[in-house]
Amino acid sequence: MAAAEGLAGCSRKPEPCVITGVTVVQGDGSSRLEALGLDRDELRFMALRAFGRTAGFQVPAGEPPRGARRCRGGVSILDARLSAKGTTLAEVLLRLEVTPGEDADAISDTVRSAEAVEPGEAVLAAFRRAIEGGAARAASGLALALTEAQKPDVLVIQDLESGNPRLRDLAVRVLADRKNPVAVPALLARLQDPDPDVADRAVGALAQIGDPRAVGPIIELSRRREGPFVAQMVRIVGDIGGAEAEAYLETMLAGHPDPAVASAAREALRDARRRNPDGRGKGAER
Questions:
Q1: What percent of the chain shows pLDDT beyond 70?
Q2: Label partner for 40 (CA 20 to 30 A): which of 121, 184, 202, 239?
Q3: Which residues are bridge partners to 58 per DSSP?
Q4: Domain final residue pick, 149, 178, 206
Q5: Residue 285 within a domain
Q6: Residue 284 lies in a domain
């Protein structure tokens, strides 16, 4: 009975985020749109409408009900331009964010959206459609992120196997923040994720957790990569530390053809030995 009650609690519908207002943040693309006639109040209204049409958010007409989960939104246009790719496109890079409570950190989603300028149509009309489409997608992404953040670890780990790469990416982010070593085996499996962004995110999550079980698989992954990414993984392996990590760093320092990788290995090895002066031999630093 207790197990059944626990499962029932895990499947409870998350409390909606009640948007109490939206702040318009000045972005690089805002001034161009303002010159075309889109003012800040209209942009604020478009963001509010996107939140209001997305499951997981509510935009009350008046004062939010007592005890509601109050959230604050934000919107900015990072870029706005016309491009000609066979047809003229109105393109925007839009960032939508939500702060789920007074003491919470804001989460954001940035999307690129484009709409064709129809013959005889005002350019601003196409930009409006692009903003509305981008805001809708961003609000949907934020709702998914908030839902994921409220799940227990066991369900977030299950989401690492989702067929939706966006959900897998969000699950990796949540587990990275929680730093629970229980998630390490599932995160190691994501190093082979078909979506390279998810795989890269998993490397960062394993770095944040700092579990020595990640050293060998990250080393193996580094052998299939090159350039700056290898240097980054060298630093991650050094931060995790241990005998296997130091042996790898010594190899990279002694024989890797990329000077940036060798330099990263030198710094990582030095830092590792400062943290553990009684560890491996001291004669390998060059």
A1: 92
A2: 121
A3: 18
A4: 149
A5: no
A6: no
What residues make up the domain containing 136?
12-149
- Antiparallel, parallel or unpaired: β 88-99 and 107-116: antiparallel
Together in a domain, 62 and 99: yes
Q: How far is CA 218 from the centre of its chain?
A: 20
- Let me know if residue 194 belongs to a domain: yes
Q: Angle 245-173-225 (CA atoms, 0-180°, nearest 5)?
A: 45
**H-helix or E-strand spanning residue 248:** helix 243-255
Give the residue among 139, 136, 35, 26 at the shortest CA–CA distance from 82: 35
Q: Rounded to an integer, what distance in angstroms lies between the CA atom of residue 177 and that of residue 4? A: 28
Copy the structure tokens of residue 97: 């964010």
Mean of per-residue pLDDT scores for the chain: 88
Helix (H/G/I), strand (E/B), else coil: 74: strand
pLDDT at 278 (0 to 100) = 64
Does 243 reside within a domain? yes
Q: What is the CATH number of the domain that holds 82?
A: 3.40.50.10610
Tally of domains within the chain: 2
CA atoms of 63 and 59, how far apart (whole Å):
10
Scanning 84-122, the segments in alpha helix (DSSP H) are none
Spatial contact of 109 and 148, defined as CB atoms under 8 Å apart:
no
The Cα–Cα gap between 261 and 228 comes to 8
- Considering the domain architecture, whether residues 99 and 128 belong to the same structural domain is answered as yes
- Number of other residues whose CB lies within 10 A of the CB of residue 118: 12
Q: What is the pLDDT of residues 187-231, one digit of tens each?
A: 999 999 999 999 999 999 999 999 999 999 999 998 888 778 889
